[in-house]
Design brief:
single chain, 322 residues, alpha/beta, 4-stranded mixed β-sheet, 39% helix
Length: 322
């Protein structure tokens, strides 16, 4: 099985707590906090671990929060490669008002990563990746890292005959499209930005996705659409899958769970359609649980089996009609 390496340039320690009413200018008595490791690639590694797989989680970290982040991942038995930086790893705060069941999410900017530090990341990528390995570059870039950073990562991955999986947003999105991308997973908003339009309807997905594949060096494009499902496009084929209907409690982490399922499926030799269905199952599984929880294997496996069965029924009905 090929190795999976995740890369997170702007990781975070997430602190979640609760309070009975968010009221200004008053000391609020919060519940005991729960801490978790976060950031695109780290979430993917944690989801892969939940699914019974393994990965090397590579990220930058600094300061007391960076030490805390390492401990949180060690507690989950996740293999790590930490590149130390002088700046402090960011900390986000999630507060749930128990009176209204509404959650308030406070995001803190990441550190300023110096040139010698992000170049050290590139060196570690070069030293680590081997032929056939998957490198998942996920999340926004912090201050100090050039917007073409993922292109530089791509050059290394391509030279080492690995496969780049990209899931990013913000200022790095468009510059990153010069990368040699094996699999990319934008959401509808990010696809709209790539296409230069304000919004996209499902009727336009096939045409616009094909345009992206013609314009940029992307082999597999998977567009996540939340509760509506997902769309897969390659130069040879395209496929839409409606997400299974579940009682959604939170959509946080569903995109990272979807990426984790797809990459794990690919590394296990799943066919393209099976990889796609497993990714949708994992993304949907993450929405069943509240807060920032990622997908769980038992939920993902049940949803995957359901999707496979539905696909068999659909093909049988088509055969009977013909």
């Amino acid at each position: 099985m090929n190795k999976i390496i995740t890369l997170t340039m702007n990781p975070v320690v997430e602190k979640a707590t609760s309070v009975a009413g968010v009221i200004p200018n008053k000391k609020l008595r919060c519940g005991s906090p729960h801490y978790s490791a976060g950031g695109g690639g780290i979430n993917v590694s944690c989801a892969i671990q939940n699914l019974g797989g393994s990965s090397l989680c590579m990220y930058v970290a600094g300061g007391p929060a960076g030490t805390h982040l390492q401990q949180l991942l060690s507690n989950n038995l996740i293999e790590q490669k930490v590149i130390s930086i002088k700046g402090w790893t960011r900390e986000n705060l999630f507060v749930t008002d128990t009176n209204t069941n509404l959650q308030y999410r406070f995001g803190i900017p990441g550190p300023n990563v110096k040139e010698e530090e992000w170049r050290e990341v590139l060196k570690h990528v070069d030293d680590t990746i081997r032929k056939g390995d998957y490198l998942v570059a996920s999340g926004k870039l912090p201050l100090g890292v050039p917007t073409n950073f993922y292109v530089q990562v791509s050059d290394i991955v391509h030279r080492k005959e690995g496969r780049l999986v990209l899931d990013t947003s913000g200022k790095a999105l468009l510059p990153s499209m010069k990368s040699d991308i094996f699999l990319m997973k934008p959401n509808l908003s990010e696809l709209s930005e790539l296409c230069g339009v304000e919004s996209i309807s499902i009727l336009e997905l096939e045409r616009l996705s094909k345009n992206i594949l013609k314009k940029y060096p992307v082999k597999i494009l998977v567009v996540s659409m939340g509760a509506k499902g997902a769309f897969l496009a390659t130069k040879e084929t395209n496929k839409y899958i409606a997400a299974p209907t579940v009682h959604q409690k939170s959509t946080i982490g569903s995109g990272d769970s979807m990426v984790a399922g797809m990459v794990l499926g690919l590394s296990q030799g799943k066919a393209l359609s099976e990889m796609f269905q497993y990714g949708v199952a994992c993304g949907t599984a993450a929405t069943i649980h509240p807060g920032t929880q990622l997908c769980k294997k038992e939920d993902a496996d049940k949803l995957y089996e359901w999707l496979l069965a539905e696909n068999v029924k659909k093909n049988k009905n088509i055969t009977e009609l013909t």
